[in-house]
Amino acid sequence: AQSVTQLGSHVSVSEGALVLLRCNYSSSVPPYLFWYVQYPNQGLQLLLKYTSAATLVKGINGFEAEFKKSETSFHLTKPSAHMSDAAEYFCAASNSGYALNFGKGTSLLVTP
Amino acid sequence: DVKVTQSSRYLVKRTGEKVFLECVQDMDHENMFWYRQDPGLGLRLIYFSYDVKMKEKGDIPEGYSVSREKKERFSLILESASTNQTSMYLCASSSERGWDPNNEQFFGPGTRLTVL
Fold first, then answer.
1. Which chain B residues have a beta carbon less than 8 Å from that of A105?
2. What is the pLDDT of residues A16-60, one digit of tens each?
3. Fewer CB within 10 A of the end CB, N or C, for chain B?
4. Residues of A numbered 47-106 whose beta carbons fall under 8 angstroms of chain B's beta carbons: which are they?
5. Residue B47 near residue B61, CB atoms below 8 Å
6. What's the CA gap between A59 and A84, in Å, rounded?
């Protein structure tokens, strides 16, 4: 089964700084990849998804992610953090089947 | 907009009780899922259903069962609740029969269950 590793359970950035959240997948076959965000006391919301159409994927709220097959990575970035970006972020993957395999999540803290 | 609702945001039950968690989606989606979310463990799939009366085990089905009598409703049942089932439970749904890489899952707000 596809597995996903998110490096860093907690990431802290200053407002206005670059956000980089790391995700690596384990598969010899490139999977379909997703980033979800969970704001406090809410369910998950899709930020963006990679489905092989383009390696650089743009999502909502200024986030983007780049698929790098050679590094088996799908890191999430945002050029300038905003206080409202504080949330938990989940990377997920699937090769086939109905269900997604989620990483353990990264909690993003944005400081003034 | 797709809406996935869960019957309770917070629930407190006692050990040994039978617990029902209800999930309803309003977009005629084929597929529905139940996940459990625990700190440091991310989301783990308990069960999913791709059609009425159909169900498949996920990664951690032990201690749980599900019911899908109507397309829009997917229930998670804890036959005899235990303290290690204290967790956040998230329901999700997705459209299309079969699997599609564009098949986004839409999540409900979650039910935080405490078993005493």
1. 40, 42
2. 999 999 999 987 666 788 999 999 888 899 999 887 778 899 999
3. N
4. 49, 51-52, 90, 92, 94, 96-100, 102-105
5. yes
6. 16
